[in-house]
Amino acid sequence: MIKNDKLILVGVIVAAKGIKGEAAIKSFTEQKINIANLNLTTDQGIKMQLRIVRKNNKDELICQVNNYRTRNEIENMKGVKLFCRRADFPKLEADEFYIIDLKGRAIVDKSHQRIGIVHDIVNFGAGDLIEIEFNNSQKELFIFNAKNFPEIKDEYLMFVPPTIAN
C-alpha cells in the first residue's frame, strides 16, 4: 500500500457495466471527464488508465479501465479508489488555488493574528465547508465563501466570523 500524503483521491470504481468489461467511475474532479487525463494509481500502486465510453444518468463515467475486458475483472475492482499525485495537477493562475492546498494553512483574524489552522475541507453536496481547528483545539465548520474568507494568501486565510442577524 502506498503511504503518501501527496496522493489525492480523484475517483472510485463503483460498479461493472455491460459485458465488455466497462466500469462506472465516480469522478471527484471539477469537470468529471478530466479524470481520464490524469496519471492515476490505486493505493496498491497499480497504474490505471481510463478511456471514457459514455456518461450514465447517475453522473458517472462509463469507462474502459487499463486492459480489463471482462465484467468479472471489473466486478473484482468495485470500490477501488483512484488517486493522482499532487504534482500532476495542472498549473493554476495567480489568483487560483486547489482546495487540497488549503489544508494546514494558518487562519488569521482581521488584525492578522493567528487564530487556528485549516483542519479539513469537506463537501456534503451543498458547497465547500472549512473546518477550522482553533488555537484552543476546538474545531468548527464554516461555509467557504468570500464573506467568511475574504483574503486567501499562500501563508494564510483571513477569517471573518459570520454574524447572527437579530
Secondary structure: helix percent: under 10%
CATH architecture of the largest domain: Beta Barrel
Radius of gyration: 19 Å
CATH class of the largest domain: Mainly Beta
Describe this structure in words.
The structure is a single chain. The chain is mainly beta and 166 residues long. It folds into two domains: 7-87, Elongation Factor Tu (Ef-tu), domain 3, CATH 2.40.30.60; 99-158, SH3 type barrels. 3% of the residues lie in helices and 40% in strands. It is built from one helix and 13 strands. The strands form two sheets. A seven-stranded antiparallel beta sheet has the order 4-3-7-1-2-6-5. A six-stranded mixed beta sheet has the order 11-10-9-8-13-12, with no helix packed on it. A hairpin with a 4-residue loop joins strand 9 (114-123) and strand 10 (128-134). The longest helix has 5 residues, at 71-75. The protein is elongated and about 60 Å long.
Q: Descriptors for this entry?
A:
SH3 type barrels, 1 helix, 6-stranded mixed sheet, 7-stranded antiparallel sheet, mainly beta, 13 strands, Elongation Factor Tu (Ef-tu), domain 3, 166 residues, single chain
